[in-house]
């Protein structure tokens, strides 16, 4: 059974940083691209960032410069470093294996003073 488990969310003040983790089990991480997406309260899903098998990375334009996606295939974990967080970044963040349709349950990030 493939499982994606996000962690690292929580309450952070505006301007703060968080690093989200997504641990993948039951699937060979090195053979697939990985994606982070988010859903803010009352809004639709938004693609944030992807990292391909070859390590190439992609980011949503609105958050370029504030996000860094990375992967550790040995630990079967993908990370999303988020800096300079704003209240509008409040959302549930999901990791996704798009090619297979696998989703984690998400981790809530709340940016508030």
Stretches with pLDDT under 50, minimum 5 residues: none
**Mind summarizing the main beta sheet?**
7 strands, mixed
- Helicity level, as a percent range? under 10%
Class inferred from helices and paired strands: mainly beta
Q: How many distinct helices?
A: 0
Give the overall average pLDDT.
95
In one word, what is the shape?
A: globular
Distance between the termini: 40 Å
Number of separate strands: 11
Give the topology string: H per helix, E per strand.
EEEEEEEEEEE
Residue fraction in strands: over 45%
| Alpha-carbon Rg, integer | 13 Å
Model description:
A hairpin with a 5-residue loop joins strand 5 (45-51) and strand 6. The strands form two sheets. Strands 2, 4, 5, 6, 9, 10 and 11 form a seven-stranded mixed sheet that branches. Strands 1-3-8-7 form a four-stranded antiparallel sheet, with no helix packed on it. With 113 residues, it is mostly beta strands. It has no helices and eleven strands. It has strands at residues 3-7, 10-12, 18-25, 34-39, 45-51, 57-59, 67-72, 77-82, 91-97, 102-103, 107-111. The protein is 0% helix and 51% strand. The relative contact order is 0.33.
